[in-house]
Write a structure and sequence with these properties.
Number of strands: 6
Strand content: 25-35%
Number of helices: 6
CATH topology of the largest domain: Nuclear Transport Factor 2, Chain: A
Helix content: 25-40%
Distance between the termini: 86 Å
Radius of gyration: 30 Å
Strand order of the largest sheet: 2-1-6-5-4-3
Order of helices and strands: HHHHHHEEEEEE
Number of domains: 2
Structural class: alpha+beta
Shape: elongated
CATH class of the largest domain: Alpha Beta
Largest sheet: 6 strands, mixed
Oligomer: single chain
């Protein structure tokens, strides 16, 4: 006779036999039970990791709505989450400056629609960047986002025309002035 947990515990064997389990059924059942337990543990662990990581990444509305008109906060979220909306709310050709390492320029620089790179929240880490805003009035906002370590940053100006917000100026990643 085989020596296993099933056969070495005669009390359990008799109980399982009364329920209609043979040794093979019991082993198959216990293997499925272990697989289900492993799946449940993995699911709980992954869900916990996912929910825990969500707490570390604040919603953009928490970062960007301080001291600005309410309609600007709504615009700002849409501007960074909907690329078509973003393109419709930029006044091209857009005034500004390219990054210092891309080229030297003496003439007035303009960003063109076909060369525009979409701005979004994907790589924004609140711990690495400092955001400051100057609200000139209810129709003009200047924003500076600066890397805390290097001091390099971007500068953007947003203006409201006909009850809609637009990006009207963009200064790419440059050293502090």
């Amino acid at each position: 006779m085989k020596s296993s947990y099933f056969t070495s515990s005669p009390g359990i064997f008799r109980f399982r036999k009364l329920l209609g389990y043979s040794e093979n059924n019991y082993l198959a059942h216990s293997q499925k039970t272990r697989q289900i337990k492993h799946f449940v543990y993995a699911f709980v662990l992954l869900t916990g990791c996912f929910l825990g990581s969500c707490k570390n990444n604040p919603e953009p509305t928490d970062i960007y709505n301080e001291g600005v008109p309410e309609d600007f906060s709504e615009f700002y979220i849409l501007f960074h989450t909907d690329s078509a909306y973003q393109m419709d709310h930029i006044l091209f050709p857009l005034e500004g400056r390219p990054a210092t390492d891309t080229r030297q320029f003496h003439d007035e620089f303009k960003w063109e629609k076909d060369a525009w790179k979409i701005h979004n929240f994907d790589h924004f880490d609140q711990d690495k960047y400092e955001v400051s805003r100057k609200v000139t009035d209810s129709t003009l906002i200047t924003e500076i986002i600066r890397d805390k370590q290097s001091g390099f940053g971007i500068k953007r100006r947003f203006a409201r025309f006909n009850d809609k917000w637009y990006l009207i100026y963009y200064d790419a990643m440059n050293p502090p002035q």
